[in-house]
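Quality-control log, excerpt.
Job 1 of 2 completed; input and output follow.
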Amino acid sequence: MKRELKQKKLFAGERQFCFKDKSTLNVISKTLNNHKEYLIDIVAIDPKLRSHFIFAKKPLISFIIFINLSLIFYLTPALNFLPATYKNWVVAVAIILALTSLIIFMVFTRHDRVFVSRHSKVPLIRFYNNLPSKQEFKQFIQAIQTASQQRFDHLGLNLQQQRAGELKTIRRVQEQGGITTGQYNRAKNKLLNLSDK
């Protein structure tokens, strides 16, 4: 069983995952301005891996705007009254901003894979898809799925115990910065409402 996975994506940051023991997964996420580390009890993880596509709309809109501006300045005959150096300077700046926007769009548009909590479905673990290699990624995902299901079957918890344990896990993840307070509150309400049924 693969015990550790390290992922790195240019400009997007690093993610490290490792099993502390048979029941706990350590997650570390680093970006230029953020560092999060938290522990997850694997019994709280839904073994089904989900897809999450992040589409960076704002950089794409900026790219389209700046490309259009550069074309307008370059191709519009009505603007020929402007001095050539001024016109060329504006076109060059617009092209540089367009290319910068395109790079930002390509960096932040990505396909993540996510493990959510078993009952409240809050995202607990995010992976860059198929990094560092497809084989290593697949092996580690299978290790989590197997460990989660085995732990779940071994403990034989009733529904009330499952939800109480999950609530404890997501509270710890929220306190350590893995999920937002809003996500925690929604998950908590869902778990409490489910427990009353």
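Job 2 of 2 completed; input and output follow.
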Amino acid sequence: MKLQILNHEGKKIKEKETRLFEEPIRIDIIRKVVEAEREWHPNAPTLYAGMNRSASGNVSRRRHVWKSDRGKGMARIPKKAFWRRGTQFSWAGAIVPSTRGGRRAHPPHGNVNIKKINKKESRKALLSSLSYVSSVDEVKKKYSTLESKKINVAFPLIVSDLSSLDTKQFNSALQTILNEFISVAIQKRKLRAGRGKSRGRKYKTTSGLLVVVGNNEDKKIRGVEVKKVSDICVSDFAENGARLTIFSEKAVDDLEQLFFNEPKKIETKTEERRDIRKIRKAKKEMKPETQKNVKEKNK
């Protein structure tokens, strides 16, 4: 598959042939891996929350004992005794759920069922998400404002010199390259409606544009998410639909190296031993005259 590589002005510089975006789109596998990649935050109290009190054992629970709390109209719960005067004492309940600072009744235990994904399946899902992101029709489905518009942008978008641009040049380059997509490219934040404002999620933010750069590149732009090849996952590309994505030229090279470069064969000790045996066997088969010549050369 031949891809166009653009400069920051949106003009074609050269073409590159790659197999990265040829994988068939498998939405079922993508959804499965996205579900497995979600960051679960299990809700549970700490292990001894409400239990680290010295209430048990301070007050006797036996009947007809002068230091006991029995027969005095007191609640039969664990007590912290603050002071004593003979049979009288000041106390406060502790540990049990009905008391101040006590443990929670039936708290959540924080158990999470994590889905396991096979290596081949996760590899296929990542390749499938790359071709999912390179489809203009699938990207339009994610953004409802673009469904009725005609888009002339050729996907996937690969730009050569992204890391060398400053913020002003980068924003102007986005406008020339993305055209109609610029309205959804920059992240927008708005105030959340409802109770979630007081629970640590005051604002809702759109996903916006994802810029994938090479492992040796570094870029920070406000309102745009930038990720290295080593940090990307399927949910970055395909959570809730195909995300608008731009790749740098070095990112494409790093992705090709990740997927299609076979690892080098490592020689084991057994293979080294076999080579030594071959050399010894060859030496034995040599004539005595040639052996002398070899020894003299080694000297």
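Post-run check on job 2. The chain has nine helices and ten strands.
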